[in-house]
Specification:
291 residues; mainly alpha; two-stranded antiparallel sheet; 11 helices; 71% helix; 3% strand
Length: 291
């Protein structure tokens, strides 16, 4: 039996892992809701965004927060161009073609990152390095930073989609692109902006996860676990995605402790169990797209 202090510590670590997965998975869901495309390279966008923060903050000497802003702008532009110049040209093609293309994006980003920054893990100096202790329990400060970033970002996205004209237009376009087009909404531009927004979110995730995972070309594979969390919660539902990622994040450290033989695959086991019991995920979408 685990001591109570270790239970609390593993729970905090699990919640922070779940929040990290949620930060990545939000980009998956936003792109899927807008285009019905699953961007399998999204985890690699997160990896590349983390390296971009390193370049601006330490390479150019801007510091962490200005470097994060510049990296978000650069990656947002990259996401916009990926959709407007590449993804838009394969509209109407088979899902297999889209799958292969997004997987190819991942290989390109990993190779580019390796050629630019090298293949060895790098560290990123952040304002939240260190440890926090309370009641005899010591947890890395970066864990609380990830949780805080996720909460702030979720509220910001909610306010953006609920209160801003651009956010409402994005929601309308995601539900019925043809009707939105006839209403004068620039659907193509909005879809590209969704890709840009997803890239910005991925960059934030990469920056806040850097103290935990370090910056490495293989960290993009965390996107697969984030995708598992989104499927568990109900793919297409943002609240469901957050719930599914938190569930996987909390289960992982305990399963790794009690069942070390399945370390690293517990997320996929949870996904398979949930899909077997509830194929639509824990939170089913409250609306269907109208045709």
């Amino acid at each position: 039996m685990l001591p109570f202090d270790d239970v609390i510590r593993l729970t905090i670590i699990g919640i922070s892992q779940g929040c990290a997965y949620a930060l990545i998975a939000l980009g998956f869901v936003l792109i899927y809701k807008a285009t019905e495309v699953v961007n399998f390279a999204h985890g690699d966008f997160m990896m590349f965004g983390g390296f971009a923060v390193l370049t601006f903050s330490e390479g150019f000497g801007l510091g962490f927060w200005p470097g994060l802003v510049c990296a978000c702008l650069a990656m947002g532009l990259a996401g916009y161009l990926v959709d407007s110049l590449i993804m838009r040209r394969i509209i109407g093609q088979s899902q297999a073609s889209i799958f292969i293309l997004t997987v190819a994006f991942g290989f390109v980003l990993r190779s580019a990152a390796g050629m630019i920054w090298g293949w060895s893990p790098l560290s990123l100096d952040t304002p939240f390095d260190g440890e926090t202790s309370f009641s005899g329990i010591t947890v890395g400060t970066e864990r609380f930073a990830i949780v805080g970033a996720t909460i702030v970002l979720c509220f910001a996205l909610y306010a953006f989609f609920a209160r801003s004209r651009l956010g409402v237009a994005m929601q309308a376009s995601s539900q019925n692109q043809l009707a939105a087009y006839y209403m004068g909404i620039p659907v193509r531009r909005l879809v590209s902006l969704v890709w840009a927004l997803a890239a910005v979110i991925a960059t934030i995730a990469g920056a806040f996860m850097a103290p935990v995972t370090q910056l490495d070309t293989s960290t993009g594979f965390l996107g697969i676990k984030a995708l598992s969390g989104a499927i568990v919660g109900g793919f297409g539902s943002i609240p469901g995605t957050i719930l599914g990622c938190l569930l996987i994040g909390v289960i992982e450290p305990f399963s790794d402790y009690y069942f070390p033989a399945i370390k690293g695959v517990s997320a996929y086991i949870v996904m398979l169990v949930v899909l077997f019991v509830r194929p639509d995920g824990l939170v089913v979408q409250t609306f269907r797209k109208k045709v």
